[in-house]
Design brief:
This protein is α/β, with parallel strands linked by helices. The chain has 12 helices and 7 strands. Helix content is 51%, strand content 13%. Helix 2 (40-52) links the parallel strand 2 and strand 3.
Length: 279
């Protein structure tokens, strides 16, 4: 039997790129999939691919920045597929490039709204049923700037660092009821988002390092994050709840290192106990 048989997974931003790969891998493991995004044609294509492989999926057109729309989406998902076992927050936006004094304030804030507010909305909608059932996993995708500075990418970096902290707070609040939250960094993947960074004048001006990384051969396959997230959904990495896992990780080695990572408080966005004592 596939590891995720009789489970329901929600994948936001599932119409293309990393999100589509995540949805396909979850479906291949037996999960029923709700694919969420704003563009109906793209998520319908993902659903068609899943159904073509014998899986079950529905397309739910949703703007994650609108909470009423998210609530309606989850009500439909529960009605058609059943209660949600795994929520994967893959939606993301990175359109504000440049120093803060040159970024359009509305574009900068829109990145934050989609990345952070959208993740709050979906997590808020999914959590009550998970808590009532005493099980569930929430996976939040992060990225560049989560744990370090990202010059000329402040909106994206600040929002993804905030998503990491939200993940930790959520996990620490719900783990006693067997609901866990994880952060996943898929690595540098060639997606529509990165293509815009490579082709736009602002991207060429302010983010030349992206092109250099691709030129140097850094190009992580989206299937790596998708396989990792399927492992998370199966419970393989439950000991690492509240922490950051990476698409580039060797998954077997990661499993072997779990106890050490927990003991040393690794993969977390927080001060060590000694540093906290000094504050």
């Amino acid at each position: 039997m596939a590891r995720l048989t009789d489970t329901v997974a929600v994948v936001t931003g599932g119409g293309r790129g990393i999100g589509r790969e995540i949805a396909l891998h979850q479906a291949r493991e037996g999960a029923k999939i709700a694919v969420l995004a704003r563009t109906a044609t793209e998520i319908e294509e993902t659903v068609a691919l899943i159904e073509g492989e014998g899986g079950r999926a529905i397309a739910v057109t949703t703007d994650v920045t609108e909470y009423s729309a998210v609530e309606s989406a989850f009500a439909r998902i529960v009605s058609e597929l059943g209660p949600v076992d795994t929520l994967v927050n893959n939606h993301g936006s990175f359109q504000a490039f440049g120093p803060v004094w040159e970024c359009d304030p509305l574009v900068w804030w829109r990145d934050v709204e989609i990345n952070l507010r959208g993740t709050f909305h979906t997590s808020r909608a999914a959590s009550p049923t998970m808590l009532a059932r005493g099980k569930g996993r929430i996976v939040n995708l992060v990225g560049g700037g989560t744990g370090n500075s990202f010059p000329n990418g402040s909106g994206y970096a600040a929002s993804k660092a905030a998503v990491m902290r939200l993940t930790e707070c959520l996990n620490d609040t719900t783990i006693a009821q067997n609901v866990r939250a994880f952060a996943v960094d898929p690595g540098l993947v060639r997606t529509a988002m990165t293509e815009m960074q490579l082709s736009s004048e602002a991207g060429k001006t302010y983010l030349p390092g992206i092109q250099k990384l691709f030129d140097d051969g850094v190009n992580v396959e989206p299937s790596r994050a998708a396989r990792l997230i399927a492992d998370i959904a199966s419970g393989r990495y439950d000991a690492l709840a509240g922490r950051l896992l990476r698409g580039i990780d060797d998954r077997d080695q990661l499993e072997r290192e779990m106890d050490s990572l927990v003991a040393t408080d690794g993969r977390a966005l927080r001060f060590t106990a000694v540093e906290q004592h000094k504050l």
